[in-house]
């Protein structure tokens, strides 16, 4: 999990490089699942795994909510969209 946390920090710094995100999933989420499974009592192993997966899904929902809020605020203020609908056509460096 330590390697996964270090990779998570690197991923936050270099958010545009998606290879780090894949390594984060491999090293952190899988190790986190294994940690919950290994440390939980026999009757709570599936609950620990479910709790881990719930935290991951909650993280995805919060990030999706943030993207939606940024897009809505930028449209209401008549600014150019911070997160364009089509990255192939809308280049942020040209705004």
From TrEMBL:
Annotated transmembrane regions: 6-30
Classification via InterPro entries: MFS_trans_sf
Keyword list, A-Z: Membrane, Transmembrane, Transmembrane helix
Transmembrane is among the record's keywords: yes
Protein name: Uncharacterized protein
Species of origin: Vitis rotundifolia
């Amino acid at each position: 999990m330590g390697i996964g946390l270090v990779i998570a920090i690197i991923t936050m710094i270099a958010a545009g490089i998606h290879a780090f995100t894949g390594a984060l999933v491999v090293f952190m989420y899988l190790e986190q699942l294994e940690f919950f499974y290994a440390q939980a009592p026999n009757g709570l192993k599936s609950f620990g795994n479910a709790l881990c997966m719930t935290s991951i899904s909650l993280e995805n929902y919060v990030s999706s909510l943030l993207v939606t809020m940024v897009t809505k605020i930028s449209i209401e203020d008549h600014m150019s969209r911070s997160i364009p609908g089509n990255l192939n056509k809308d280049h942020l460096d040209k705004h």
